[in-house]
Write a structure and sequence with these properties.
The protein has 128 residues and is an alpha+beta fold. It contains 5 helices and 5 strands; from the N terminus they run E-H-E-H-E-H-E-E-H-H. A 5-stranded antiparallel beta sheet has the order 1-5-4-3-2. Helix 1 crosses helix 5. The relative contact order is 0.23.
Amino acid sequence: MAYTTQKRVSGSFDDVVDQTVAALEDEGFGVLCDIDVQATFAEKLDREFRRYRILGACNPELAFQGLEAEIELGALLPCNVVVYETDDGAVTVSAVDPSELVGIADNPELDGISGDVSERFERVLSEL
């Protein structure tokens, strides 16, 4: 089952992260958290890992609408977008598929919201 949409992007890792954050902002998302998985694993486990960042993206208006329709939706927020280096040194940006994510809530009121978020994420990826 595909639960993300992704794009392989050319450019340096840090530049792609910056471009991704900017593209998210253009679509009305703020990045509430930025988890550097590589640094966390190095610090907490003394283990090496590829460059990998988890960006917790949130569009406040859409989050408000979603929580109004389904109060437990907060357990699935924010929507994550990841930027990571592949084995061959390229960079991939991957966004959660909101339809798959909120589908577990089985609430038709969320369909329009997840469709809106999906379209915005597609535009984010197309900007990279």
